[in-house]
Amino acid sequence: MMWVKLTFGGYGRRFVEALAAAIVLAATSATVAASLMVVAGARNTLTRAIHQDRPDVVEVKSRFNRALFETPRSGYLPPLTIPVYEPLIDPAELGTATGDSQVVRRQSLFRNVVNGDSFLNMYVFGIDPDVERGLSSFSLARGRFLRREDRAVAVLDQASARSLGVDIGGTFPVRKADGTDLQLTVVGILDRLELRGAPPRSAEAPSLRPDSTFVSSGAFVNIQTSEDIFGRETLTDALVIARSTSDVPALVAKLQEAFRLEPGIFITERYSQYQRKVRDFALTLTLFSAMSIATLLLAGSFAANLLHDIYVERRRQYATLLALGFPPAMGIAPAVIFGLALGLAAVAIGGLAASAFVPRTFAMPSLMADLGPTEPTIDWVVVCSMVAIAIAAVSVGLASTTVQLLRGPVAATLSEASP
Amino acid sequence: MTPAFISLRSVSKTYRSDHATVGALREVSLEIEKGGFVRLSGPSGSGKTTLLNIVAGLDRPDQGEVFVSGIDVGRLSGSRASKYRAEQVGMVFQSYNLIPQLTALENVLLPMIALGRANQGRARELLDLVGLADRSDHNPSQLSGGEQQRVAVARALANDPALVLADEPTGNLDDQSAQRVMGLLTRVVREHGKTLLLVTHERDLQTAQTSLELRGGVLMSAPE
Question: What residue ranges of chain A have pLDDT lower than 50?
Fold first, then answer.
């Protein structure tokens, strides 16, 4: 109780100044917190963009072309032409162009599957199971995922499995290029999947996400099995992972050079868009950091000055403690604790105000054209910055008093007239 | 021959400002025996308070040596000087220097807290000794100047120090209060066997064993 009185009691009219310092600090903190929250949100958006867009991945895709597919035998509808990828990419040529960059090969096929009385359009994806899982996400509901050494086995999504009426261990036929059927055995059922660089949905087929414009379902087989079905080794599409993001332009140039004679192969990258997002983030960071620093220098120094005045008035009291035999750290402790309590309370209020009033989404089109809207967020950087503001303001306010008390003779402070 | 309790050897102290250099103490040497009562007088600016502060370890001499109870006070670090003051020295200031937000009792407890042995019973005894037992819960602002200085005397005795340093303890008091405080201080110090170094302007103080005078930082013979 005595320490509480010693630390927080007896401020008299200086209490108003302490209150003013706290309000200024709270307002400063709110402004800085709001700015840093926007920066944190922008950083999250950029991080999400890196994770989702994968600017280090270059897509190599064959052209989308129409192919003839059957319609149900029992109906009256004529065969349909459905757009699918053409298998134009030579894996050897691709390997030469990409060097030691990792290549995720794919054969994205479309097949009619007739199983008993049912007729189904189905996307069949030939993939490298191990490398594909590094880019796409597969969530198994039952069974297991594909293995490199598998032959004639498939993993289906739940919607396709239900439509085909098969489960783990069941089989269904897929028509091969030579006109015979290959019986695929189901070894796993997926309840969720995110296929990176998925083809557009061009036909009615069972789907885990019916509203998606991209394929979100199908039968997944390993690439050897898809070659058996397809009857050729050429790929419909491939994803090339650059060793680093900065290698992307050179990789794209090599791929364009390698496939310059094949107009049906398209090379796309998201690196340029990512760079624009990085530039947007840098501008956002610069603008809001500058705003934070300016606020901090103007308002923070004002708050520190108010604290300085309060401390000067209490200086003689702290010196009395030292004269009575308190160790230097203990003698100055009430000043430090008072300042930190005031500063931290102020920044806590400022931080809460910022988190309450800052917009849920923030967009400044002229600044964030490519980055898009961000969600201002409180993270550890924001919290630590707030605490640093409190400590900085208190330290600046307390500096001269501390130096005088701990470095100069106590007698000089004791003989000071009260301001 | 036993060494003196307080020993100053050729102590000098100079204060420098932008405009001037003031020699506060010049080659001051003196010895005070344990249990002695020394009155130090002199005109304003003669170096009395500086000498007291140097003995208390609140200031350092530029030259010379200061020993109190065998401790080289002039060379103590900040924390050791604090410990020395807490254990060996009780101080009474002209302007009392009570902590205004604490009660009289809490003010007396402060030096004990500095040593980590707060004892409310002893603090009350000391307030009783200075005749303020019934004012222990009062804040300094609720006490008269004389009462505040009596609290300061009780505070100076809190850790039972061997040395009491009093810097013009009656300087801010009316005659009646001054007499009472001075009487109390000398009585208590004598009864408890303390060494007292008292800075005062009062020339008619007869109770001191030794009277010293400082003029321009130089220690003169006892004033007549």
Answer: 419
